[in-house]
Amino acid sequence: MTTRISGQTAYATELRGWLTARLAVYLARPESSIDHDTPLAHYGMDSVWALSLCGDLEEEKDLIVDPTLVWDHPTVTDIVAHLVPRPAPARAVDGQSRHPGEPAPARGGQQSAPARVRGQAPGHRGGPHDAR
Question: Which of 2, 70, 77, 96 is the most exposed place for a label (fewest CB within 10 A)?
């Protein structure tokens, strides 16, 4: 598990750097001026650049993202937290693997399929703005 977590940390760091560099180009700012915890709208991010960023994530990072990504996750930190996969599920008391918050298996041993929120890719990590 340590290897997976360190791999996720490395991926998060790489993605944060890529996002910062891309945003610096879009916003015509030095990378060092972009605070990862400041809403991108504060820097003048508009819907055109937000959609361009989504397209770049799909093309260059092979990530399928909702066009509202920047508005639902307004900071670099929020976007990275949303896009980096969560750790592998822990074993539950019943021996089934599932992520925290995932429902327990239905009676009869069959596990119900988790609900999928509009625009989420399979394996979506979820975030504070996903409840719609």
Answer: 2
